[in-house]
Amino acid sequence: MTPATHRSHTDDLLSFIAASPSPYHVVASAAQRLEKAGFRELRGTDDWTGATGGCFVIRAGALIAWYVPEGAPAHTPFRIVGTHTDSPNLRIKPSPDTGTAGWRQIGVEIYGGVPLNTWLDRDLGISGRLALRGPDGTPRYRLVQIDEPLLRVPQLAIHLDRSVNEGVALDRQRHIAPVWALGDPQEGALLRRVAAAAEEDPADVLGWDLMLHDIQPPGYLGVDREFVVASRLDNQISVHAGVTALVGAATGVEEPAYVPVLAAFDHEEVGSGSETGAQSPLLERVLSRSVSARGGSGEDWSRALSGAFCVSADMAHAVHPNYAERHDPDHRPLPNGGPTVKVNVNQRYATDSTGIAVFTAACERAGAPWQPFVSNNAMPCGTSIGPLTAARLGVTTVDVGVPGLSMHSARELCGADDPAYLAAILGAIMTGG
To answer: Which of 387, 413, 420, 418 has the alpha carbon at shortest distance from 82?
Structure first.
């Protein structure tokens, strides 16, 4: 891969992130790219009979996409890339209007493992979706993205709290309501502002899934712009790489030897236990139905799974220069050294030697480096969708990810070359070439 290839891919990643402040926007951005490449959306109520080529299914903040090569038998094995669309953040409560001491504020709930100090004193916008009254009585949905500095969680001045640098924990109950205007709280003020941005009547809003996002745009860092800094790198790096790899497999010169699949789940940051999470039957049902829609039998479905392989792609930890003792002394991934293969013998990651062999062979074909990752024995190990997918589908799975710093922060960091490496490796796995 050339430096120009790396930079072109990363430039596109930054555009993807800027357009995707919520899981619903991530899905919309991915779907737009897939449609441009000739994929078509299938709905659950559609007749899928004979569906071949590129297809995708959307379920709220989750997307399952796949490509059936020309003439592929129904038992053709799957090559799956599993990712997630959500990131830790602050989500707006159903009754958000509040305030104190003459300030208008909104109530928010903490979603996932948020380092709260990273959200202090940042200019915040609002994004998500509105559920609206439909003409036939069923809800319709509208995405909202307000990239304006509407809100802020103000930090207490050091003059009023001299212990702030002594590691005193933030009081989640009292200090997390962001300021967004002066004046007394007005019932429905936030709803009116969001509805106006969506060009909808507030009276038609039946519900919402709204959240806050840092409006500072993603960009490069370093003397040679060797780093990427952005919100939601975890895990939009992997979603973007998966879309890129799937489109490449579908539009390449040669047909892939497998059925490449992208599974972008929601709610990974809170355990994946939802209708759109990796613990749900969503992926299993979609893939099973795609087999039967092509005339496949139960035996074909079992054969397709038996030969399947899954890559769970999620952000990984680079060694932190100020806290090197928190990392395993012999496994210290660095930015721009390639994606990591994540191993945990207690199955917090699903990687085994078979998964490593398939992944490293793909790295060789892609001409991309890779790095091993193991957590320090004295530190609890994180997890991702890999073990869930492996357990649910019974397929060989490897956990991998681009190494970075400040994971779950309002603004994360990774190497500028690694996203392109990941996309190239995933492409090699999907095509089997």
So the answer is: 387
CA-wise closest residue to 309 among 82, 83, 85, 84 = 82
b/e code 262-290 from CB counts within 10 Å (16+ = b): bbbbbbbbeebebebbbbbebbeebbbbb
Q: How far apart are CA 406 and CA 397, in angstroms?
A: 26
Residue-number span of the structural domain to which 103 is assigned: 89-214
Stretch 335-340: mean pLDDT: 97
CB atoms within 10 A of CB 352: 15
- List Cβ neighbours of 36 (8 Å cut-off, separation of 6 or more): none
Report the 10 Å Cβ neighbour count for 18: 19
Domain identity same for 203 and 252? no
Check if the beta carbon of residue 404 is closer than 8 Å to that of residue 231.
Answer: no
The total number of structural domains in the chain stands at: 2
366 and 260 assigned to the same domain: yes
Report the phi/psi class of residue 94: left, alpha or beta, with left for phi > 0 and alpha for psi in -120 to 50: alpha
Residue 72 vs residues 38, 181, 258, 291, 295: alpha-carbon distances, Å: 18, 59, 8, 11, 12
Residues 67 and 107 in one domain: no
| pLDDT of 433 above 70 | no
Same-domain status, 112 and 161: yes
Using alpha carbons only, what angle is made at residue 232 by residues 227 and 233, rounded to the nearest 5 degrees? Answer: 35
Pairing status of strand 78-84 against strand 259-265: parallel
* Environment class of 101 (CB within 10 Å of its CB; exposed 0-12, middle 13-18, buried 19+): exposed
Q: Is the pLDDT of residue 170 over 80?
A: no
Predicted confidence (pLDDT) per residue in 407-417, tens digit: 999 999 999 99
Averaged pLDDT of the chain: 94
